[in-house]
Design a protein that fits this description.
Largest sheet: none
Number of strands: 0
Shape: elongated
Radius of gyration: 21 Å
Order of helices and strands: HHHHHHHH
Mean pLDDT: 89
Number of helices: 8
Length: about 200
């Protein structure tokens, strides 16, 4: 995708699993789930980096212009803040749209996979507390009228794909890695980030 449309991204996106890479005879939906297509995208958390970048950029501006007036500092800070706000608004808007679409897609795919209604899947999803992979097996058990598998039983089922690395900064944005690590030391959302 053109940088024109993704100027606001500092991190690599989740890649969809190419059908040519999928194992034949295994559930395509399970393979997509394991590869991470239906996982939280993290744009909201990534937007916290923008606050840190704003402070760094403003401090650099002050160092380059040590004798500037307070009015110039205020004006420069407002300019940096506008850029930050524009990027954060786009990131959070995309995050909310993506999360909503992903939940609907997952519901529809599970309903199709197990030949049950979307409403049944929604009801299960509302009550379920576990990973997306565990949800896949849970819905399958319910649809077949079986006793649902435990977390331990699901963990013993071999993975077909390992999940994609999440929240990896693009090469051009690696200068912000120390700031991202600082954010992780404060939050480390869901222990989902690889920079430990």
């Amino acid at each position: 995708m053109s940088r024109q449309f993704t100027w606001w991204r500092r991190f690599h996106t989740t890649q969809k699993l190419d059908p040519k890479e999928m194992y034949k005879g295994a559930s395509k939906l399970l393979q997509r789930i394991e590869a991470g297509e239906f996982e939280h995208d993290g744009l909201w958390e990534q937007s916290y980096l923008e606050d840190e970048i704003l402070e760094v950029q403003f401090n650099e501006f002050k160092k380059k212009n040590p004798k500037a007036s307070e009015d110039l500092y205020d004006s420069a800070y407002m300019d940096f803040r506008k850029k930050r706000t524009k990027r954060v608004n786009v990131m959070r808007s995309h995050h909310l749209d993506r999360e909503t679409q992903m939940l609907y897609d997952l519901k529809n795919e599970l309903a199709k996979e197990y030949n049950i209604t979307g409403d049944q899947v929604w009801d299960i999803m509302e009550e379920f507390d576990g990973t997306t992979r565990e949800l896949y097996f849970y819905v399958g058990s319910i649809a077949r009228g079986e006793e649902p598998k435990t977390k331990e039983q699901v963990a013993n089922i071999p993975l077909l794909f390992y999940p994609q690395p999440r929240h990896v900064l693009k090469r051009s944005e690696m200068k912000w890695l120390p700031l991202w690590r600082k954010i992780l030391s404060r939050y480390n959302f869901y222990f989902a980030y690889p920079y430990e």
